[in-house]
Amino acid sequence: MILVQPQLGENIGMVARAMLNCALLDLRLVAPRDGWPNPLAYKTASGADVVLENARVFDTTAEAIADLGHVFATTARARDMSKDVLTPRGAAKEMRDLRAQDVQCGVLFGREAVGLHNDDIALADSILMVPLNPGFTSLNLAQAVLLMGYEWFQVAADQPDEIFEVRLDTRRATKEELVAMFEHLETELTDCGFLGVAAKKPGMIRNLRNLFQRARMTEQEVRTMRGVISGLVKKRKS
Predict the structure, then answer these.
(1) pTM for the full model?
(2) Dmax over Cα atoms in the chain, in whole Å?
(3) What is the mean pLDDT of residues 31-40?
(4) Torsion sign over Cα 112, 117, 123, 125
């Protein structure tokens, strides 16, 4: 579970408690507002100290998900992005299938007050939304984590440990590899003038990143794409 800029230590502690209820141990914190470690977290963790003691802190969302192959972003409201939208149950089943293929997954949770920013969601492969009363969908951070963790735990308990899949001679690209490709492409598009309008540039970059995220690229495809970019640049400059 990845908490992006969590505000209160008490909330982080309650998240740790919810995670350990579901046998989840990998907690990642992106720029926690009050720093880390935070003694207030232990007061509400109710003994889930192992989760807090092994929590890792990152400066950015991109760094926190760099080693992951598939990321789900939680949100309570519709976003103007073309991504698969899953319920926690659907996401848990997909995670289980991906795990059988050695693809590491993560779930992004946003700030208590405003949730995830669009730039965070643009780095994700899928959107995760909880079907609740349309008139009141408000959840606190720990509740959201527990809902996702519970569905994961149930799927993991109900399905066999081994799933036979056809393996490719490559693997899913990590977020670190994808972000490096994004930055490579965006640099060259800026240099050639395609991203020359400053007011439109952030939105165009998000659209491009979402396009490639939907492709669920392999490591080999990322290397091929970077070769294509370099080849086009070489041709243009020759």
Answers:
(1) 0.80
(2) 65
(3) 96
(4) positive
